[in-house]
Design goal:
Blueprint lengths: L17 E6 L4 E6 L8 E4 L1 H5 L8 E4 L11 H15 L19 E6 L2 E5 L4
Parallel strand pairs: 2-4
Antiparallel strand pairs: 1-2, 1-3, 5-6
Length: 125
C-alpha cells in the first residue's frame, strides 16, 4: 500500500491535499486540510478537485484554511494597504501648530477603519 493518499475522484491518481466531509443535518460540505487519518465517510481530494468543488443546490460550502500554508493577500487587504500609502503620502497641513498643550496633547485619533488597518489623524490637522 502506498503511503501517499490519492484523490477519491474516479480516474484521478493525484496526491490528496484536502479532505471533504458532508454535514447532512446542516446541508453543508466542509473542505479542510488533509485529515490525519483516512475516514470511511470523508473524501480526500487533490488540489485541482478541491478548488473546483461545488455543492448541491441549497447547500453551503465551508472552506477551512490550512494554517501551515501561507495565505495570499485578498483584494481588500491590498486595497486597504494602497489607501494607507496614499493617505501617508498626502501633504500635511501645519497651519495650526501654535495650538495645543504639551507633547501628549497631539495623540492621534482614529478616523476610519478597514479590516485590521486604521487611519489615524493627529489633533493638529
Amino acid at each position: 500500500m502506498s503511503p501517499v493518499r490519492r484523490c477519491s475522484r474516479t480516474a484521478c491518481g493525484r496526491p490528496a491535499v484536502a479532505t471533504l466531509t458532508y454535514v447532512y443535518a446542516d446541508s453543508t460540505a466542509v473542505l479542510g486540510p488533509l485529515a490525519t487519518y483516512a475516514e470511511p465517510h470523508c473524501y480526500d481530494l487533490c488540489a485541482e478537485h478541491s478548488e473546483r468543488l461545488t455543492a448541491p443546490r441549497g447547500w453551503e460550502v465551508v472552506r477551512l484554511s490550512d494554517p501551515s500554508v501561507p495565505t495570499r493577500p485578498s483584494g481588500d487587504d491590498l486595497e486597504a494597504l494602497a489607501n494607507a500609502v496614499r493617505e501617508a503620502a498626502r501633504p500635511q497641513d501645519r497651519g495650526g501648530e501654535g495650538r495645543g498643550g504639551g507633547p501628549h496633547a497631539a495623540d492621534p485619533m482614529e478616523v476610519a477603519r478597514r479590516g485590521h488597518l486604521r487611519v489615524l489623524r493627529s489633533p493638529d490637522s
